[in-house]
Amino acid sequence: MTKECPIAQEAAALLARLGVDPAPEAGGRAVRSPISGSVIGHVADTGPEAVENAIAAAARAFAEWRRVPAPRRGEFVRLIGEELRAAKADLGRLVTLEVGKVPSEGEGEVQEMIDICDYAVGLSRQLQGLALPSERPDHRMMEQWHPAGVVAVITAFNFPVAVFSWNAALALVCGDPVIWKPSEKAPLTALAVRTLVARAAARFGGVPAGLVQVLPGGHDVGATLVDDGRVAVVSATGSTRMGRVVGQRVAARFGRAILELGGNNASIVTPSADLDLAVRAIAFGAMGTAGQRCTTLRRLFVHDAVYDALVPRLAKVYAGVTVGNPLEDGVLVGPLIDEAAGEAMSLAIAAARALGATVTGGEAVDVDGCAEACYRRPALVEMAEQVGPMLEETFAPILYVHRYHDLDTAIALQNAVAQGLSSSIFSNDLRETETFLSASGSDCGIANVNMGTSGAEIGGAFGGEKETGGGRESGSDAWKGYMRRMTSAINYGRDLPLAQGVRFDID
Ligand code: UN1
């Protein structure tokens, strides 16, 4: 790092404003900005003893926090939301510096955190169980939801802070302590969030020690959390390869895993689609965040009747979109996270070419002052068949385009991949849209109409099927994943009628 590097200087200033003390981190792992490749800070890995201590502290915190009334727990989350509001510009900018998102997306990520805090505050008064009819006279049945226990949250670089907050805001109101292992590629934003949470805790007063802990580090930190029986819930976001290991290891000890893994998301453009709207939605879905969302649009099925009207328009957008330093005005596509991501993109495109695909874009882009970084023009790849790299998630801005003749085939092709996260249809035909949303339509956790596959709101349950892992986070009833259900039958009579009419007369 040169002292003059403006990105490093800005990161240092942001961290100072956000209250992060760099001293304890000196000598730790170097963190590089994908914008320029320059080192913007250091973060010390958490050693095995510290991980052990953290789990023990979280377990102690659980004994206290579960006794705090849920609406009071919600007050703590409300204060976290206030701190995030106050720090939105700085934290959003730090997201941009650390993972290369354009500023509007960096701030959008912090907004997503604020939104889920607001949501969780309301939820803290709505952790409702059911009253159920008993088949026995003078009995009643009911359900309660109790806190599950320590929740470990393992996050990926691409949403370095928002995904933590989806889990943490819910877990905290549900009565659970949270241990967060952030991505090794994005630990600085995690340290900043830790400081904001500490500020909220100081204002709240009486937050048990160890309620929210951040453990930067590598694979070993995650593995310890995954295997420890004191960790009730492991919520992990990342690749299917990672999730397969995490899921099996958590299951082996009968823990609970919430998995949010790969996506290979598709949209279908039908003859009745509003093409102006579709072009904009496809552009954001496929190129936004430089193709590095798990919800990124990766496959496009276009009906014959509109193929020649739509695809050349898309090719024009792809050729014209501004790729470059996200700190500059007008840039929509920033860098890939690292060189390995660029190589994966090149390999996928080469594989598609070898299969006869027509490729627009995909080449490396030189960006002034950013020679150490990895910039790529998004690629539009026309495929005659859904084969090879089109069946895989490459975490880069590649959109495979494929013609179709009838909707059933398009839906079948859409579903014919291992992942099942997000999907959408562009159509003004009710029969088509309802078929797409029906039980025999999209097999994904998310299915949208006349919009893209990415950019979900926090109010809905977020997650997907098949190799996406089956977990649900964020809105709807995802909170139940952080609680345990207790069913109670209560006899307020003088007799002991047994269920199912069973007799067991002892005199
Ligand atoms: C992710 O990429 O891991 O729906 C999460 C979206 C965002 C979240 C993406 N709200 O695109």
Your description of this structure?
The protein is an alpha/beta fold. It has two domains: 17-128 and 147-261 and 469-473, Aldehyde Dehydrogenase, Chain A, domain 1, CATH 3.40.605.10; 265-460, Aldehyde Dehydrogenase, Chain A, domain 2 (3-Layer(aba) Sandwich), CATH 3.40.309.10. It is 39% helix and 19% strand. It contains 13 helices and 21 strands. The protein has helices at 6-17, 48-65, 70-99, 103-123, 162-174, 187-204, 219-227, 240-252, 275-287, 304-320, 339-354, 407-415, 430-437, and strands at residues 29-32, 39-43, 131-132, 139-147, 150-154, 178-181, 212-214, 231-237, 256-260, 265-269, 297-303, 358-361, 379-382, 398-404, 419-420, 422-426, 446-449, 461-462, 465-466, 473-474, 483-491. The strands form six sheets. Strands 12-13-14-11-10-16-17 form a seven-stranded mixed sheet, sandwiched between helices. Strands 7-6-5-8-9 form a five-stranded parallel sheet, with helices on both faces. β8 (231-237), α8 (240-252) and β9 (256-260) form a beta-alpha-beta unit. α3 (70-99) packs antiparallel against α6 and α4 packs parallel to α5. It is globular. The protein starts with 5 loop residues before the first helix and ends in a 16-residue tail after the last strand. The mean pLDDT is 97. Residues 112, 158-159, 163, 237, 293-295, 454-456 line the site of 2-aminohexanedioic acid (UN1).
